[in-house]
Specification:
With 196 residues, this protein is of the alpha/beta class. Helix content is 33%, strand content 23%. The protein has an eight-stranded mixed β-sheet, sandwiched between helices. Strand 1 (5-11) and strand 2 (14-21) form a beta hairpin. The protein is globular.
């Protein structure tokens, strides 16, 4: 049974809103969000409950200017590093859809030793990291919607080629927020990756 609670994490001059369930004894999973979404989407979709019920410790964040976190000046990578430190998270898996995927990559390159894995979902801004993707040394799950018109599917194949320890999952008939179109498949693939 999920024990989801709300909290605010005071870092970098921000009060970062977080939905959290830390009762499990498996990996910490940090869930970011896309530009039209917030932490509450992971609750509505059932992802928080699915992960918590599987024994993972989950932390869904609202980035500054989204959901319940007010705007602040902190750079995303700095803010996320500060959150990991404040919450004493040891090498969590970071799940980043769309804009959150770009933030996940920025965080990884700022502090690779702090990250245990990456889940990149329809990530935008891939070209910004073009020369560095081969440096990624953690297991990576890449999930894309077949019909993504925001971040073309070519980006998925590019990430898959460049990141050595990666697995690519294409959700057929799904759009940019592919996890919304196929939540059951999304949850299956995510759990399979985390348990691997």
């Amino acid at each position: 049974m999920s024990e989801l609670r709300e909290k605010r994490i005071p870092v970098q001059g921000c009060q970062v809103y977080c939905l959290q369930d830390t009762a499990g004894d498996k990996k910490d999973v940090v869930l970011l969000h896309g530009a039209k979404f917030s932490a509450s989407n992971w609750r509505e979709l059932g992802t928080l409950e699915v992960l918590a019920d599987a024994g993972h410790r989950v932390h869904a964040l609202d980035m500054p200017g989204y959901g319940n976190t007010a705007k602040c000046r902190a750079a995303p990578a700095d803010l996320l590093q500060a959150v990991l430190e404040h919450e004493e998270l040891q090498r969590p898996v970071v799940v980043g859809p769309s804009m959150g995927g770009a933030y996940s990559l920025a965080l990884y390159f700022a502090a690779p030793e702090r990250i245990g894995g990456l889940v990149l979902v329809g990530t935008v801004g891939v070209d910004k990291f073009q020369g560095r993707l081969r440096e990624i040394g953690v297991p990576c799950l890449i999930v894309w919607g077949e019909l993504d018109t925001v971040s073309p599917i070519e980006n998925a194949y590019f990430l898959s080629r460049e990141i050595e320890d990666s697995r690519l999952v294409i959700l057929e008939g799904a759009r940019h927020p592919c996890y919304l179109d196929q939540p059951q498949k999304w949850h299956e693939e995510l759990l399979d990756y985390l348990d691997g």
